[in-house]
Design brief:
The chain is of the alpha/beta class. The chain folds into 2 domains: 226 residues, Type I PLP-dependent aspartate aminotransferase-like (Major domain) (Aspartate Aminotransferase, domain 2, 3-Layer(aba) Sandwich); 117 residues, Aspartate Aminotransferase, domain 1, CATH 3.90.1150.10. 39% of the residues lie in helices and 12% in strands. It is built from 12 helices and 12 strands. It has a 7-stranded mixed sheet, with helices on both faces. A 3-stranded antiparallel sheet has the order 7-6-10, with no helix packed on it. Strands 11-12 form a two-stranded antiparallel sheet. The structure holds pyridoxal-5'-phosphate.
């Protein structure tokens, strides 16, 4: 048997009849970037997550960068995050000129440890960026309490967590802002890059909308004023044919081109309807593994009553990570070694001065964690084969 860590073609084949005519309609419409489908997707995603505003972006990385800037994070500020994540989390902090500060994780959830986070706060700290790693929400009540006590913004990196929940609310609705990725491997995914910012803060939403599109037009002017720029009341909308139109080809600050393509929005709108069903399948697969895999050989994910993971990854731990991956590969079971190197030991962050041993729990996790296939379309036969093969290691 040959079971990949993820097979995107199975989901495509299942939804093909619905996806292909919708994509064809979009191509025939002549609207390819933003437009009605993006606006409708934003409304549907906001309703799904339970927030007032959703702003689509070109990627999850851009969603993080734009959210950080919307919260006013700038050069010289510090943002505390986890060392056990995908590079983009810390990269986004550095991309806005701020310093990523790492706080070690909790042994069971693999998410940031709120106590360690608090210990890292300095007068320069501006925001906290917890990550719901593998779709397992961080302890947001504790994170928010620490942040509130110190006047910090909280941005959730929910890039892996579409559809996961914490105490009855959805990830992305648990703090000031949430950031999602629709990269093809994600639980809700498009056929390319895509991202989303969620927030109940209307001002942040205005700023994010401006920032994803060059901070131009009326939205750019509003965002500029909200960010402390001088509001120019003399600006009046003029005839679109006029030579000088303060809202046309007029840009208010340096921003980004990070719009979502209409085609991606069409795909996301269809797939969003199936997301809960797909996540339920993932949860059933994870429950099967949790009941079947040998706890004497492996440390399995630890469910907590407060969280409903979306099982973006099903990750188990072994002290023989390399041997285990090689063994499963030989038996035809795909794996992923998320994540082999913690952020504080990445070449790109050498300059921050961390060394081996600084984040012992994250470092140990990196040496032990192996993701198994958990995607919704796995068959019964495949699930049994994976469990039996893993147990025979
Ligand atoms: C935790 C995390 N943060 C950020 C990102 C970046 O998202 P994207 O690849 O859409 O830029 C990803 C996904 O790749 C991720 O897993």
């Amino acid at each position: 048997m040959n079971i990949p860590i993820l097979d995107l073609k199975r989901q495509y084949n299942m939804l093909k009849k619905e996806l292909e005519p919708a994509v064809a309609d979009c191509m025939a419409s002549g609207v390819y970037v933003m437009g009605e489908n993006v606006a409708e997707f934003e409304k549907e995603a906001a309703a799904y997550i339970g927030v007032k505003n959703a702003v689509a972006t070109g990627s999850g990385t851009d969603a993080l960068v734009i959210s950080l800037r919307a919260c006013g994070v700038k050069e010289g500020d510090e943002v505390i995050t986890t060392p056990f994540t995908f590079f983009a989390t810390a990269e986004a902090i550095a991309a806005v000129g701020a310093v990523p500060v790492f706080a070690d994780i909790l042994e069971d959830s693999l998410d940031i440890d709120p106590e360690k986070l608090e210990a890292k706060i300095t007068p320069k700290t501006k925001a906290v960026l917890p990550v719901h790693i593998f779709g397992y929400p961080a302890d947001m009540d504790a994170v928010n309490a620490v942040a509130k006590a110190h006047g910090l913004y909280v941005i959730e990196d929910a890039c892996q967590a579409m559809g996961s929940g914490y105490k009855g609310r959805k990830s992305g609705a648990l703090s000031d802002m949430g950031c999602f990725s629709f990269f093809p491997t994600k639980n809700l995914s498009c056929f390319g890059d895509g991202g989303l910012i969620t927030t109940d803060n209307d001002d942040f939403a205005v700023i994010c909308r401006a920032m994803r599109a060059h901070a131009g037009g009326k939205n750019g002017a509003e965002a500029y004023a909200l960010m402390g720029g001088k509001k120019d009341d003399s600006i009046k909308e003029v005839d679109s044919g006029a030579l000088y139109n303060p809202y046309k080809y007029y840009n208010y600050f340096i921003a980004y081109n990070s719009r979502l393509d209409a085609l991606q929005a069409v795909i996301l709108r269809i797939k969003l309807k199936y997301l809960d069903g797909f996540n339920a399948k993932r949860a059933a697969n994870a429950a099967f593994f949790n009941s079947r895999l040998d706890r004497n050989k492996f440390k399995l994910p630890v469910p907590s009553g407060d969280v409903t993971p979306c099982w973006h990854q099903y990750v188990i731990r072994t002290e023989r990570k390399e041997d285990f991956i090689a063994y499963l590969s030989q038996k035809g079971v795909g794996t992923a070694a998320y994540y082999p190197v913690p952020m504080h030991l990445q070449k790109a962050f050498m300059g921050l001065g961390y060394k081996k041993g600084d984040m012992p729990i994250a470092e140990k996790a990196c040496s032990q964690t192996v993701a198994l296939p958990v995607f919704p379309e796995l068959t019964e036969e495949e699930l049994h084969y994976i469990a039996d093969t893993v147990n025979k290691f």
